[in-house]
Amino acid sequence: MTKLTRRNLMTAAAATGLAGALGSRLAFAADEPLGITLVIPSPVGDVGWGHALAAGLEPIKAAYGDKVKVTVLENIAEGPDADRIMNKTVADGNKFLVAGSFGYQNGALQIARRDPSVTVLHASGFQVAPNFSPFAAKYFQGTYLLGMAAAALPRPASSALSPPLPSPSSLPRSTPLRSAPRPSNPISRSRWSG
């Protein structure tokens, strides 16, 4: 029996979503495998976004075997180099691109608009197209607990959320941080510094 942990649940959810997106493509696939490319700005490592995205591809490889060819490109800086590398993977025949950083959004969207046969999943973006879809983690549990911890401090607590760059995914993260302190410490306050 598999122990249900947050990590196992996140991996299974990522794999299920990716399998759902791949299902129709694999049903009509030719003799060659479906090329899937994951582009991330950091090393895969043992923790973090890169690790979670790469781990989400493992069940796909296990389930589809030789029908998929997975390529993971790590340490790809956001900007023109990332755009060039993503374009090259598509030119090499990959039909499924997972863009694992907010900064890849514009380049990945251009690829999707230019080539409707390519499916693009984009981490934490906000734009959509018929073959371009964003995805994001749900941070509200952690930020709610952070707000409760700040409110539990003995003197009036203050908490702030400072995202590295403003994005639509930052605002939902701030809501639980601002609302959590109220029940346990009504004089605590939080601020947005994005």
Would you report the number of β strands?
7
Shape: elongated
Strand residues, percent: 15-25%
Helix content range: 40-55%
- The number of helical segments is 7
Question: Mean pLDDT, as a whole number?
Answer: 77
H/E series, N to C?
HEHEHEHEEHEHHE
Task: Describe this structure as you would to a colleague.
The strands form two sheets. Strands 2-1-3-4-5 form a five-stranded parallel β-sheet, with helices on both faces. It contains seven helices and seven strands. With 194 residues, it is of the alpha/beta class. The protein is elongated and about 65 Å long. Helices cover 45% and strands 17% of the residues. The model has no long low-confidence stretch (mean pLDDT 77). The longest helix is centred in the N-terminal third of the chain and has 22 residues, at 6-27. Helix 1 (6-27) crosses helix 2 and helix 5 (140-151) runs parallel beside helix 6 (170-179). It starts with 5 loop residues before the first helix and ends with a strand.
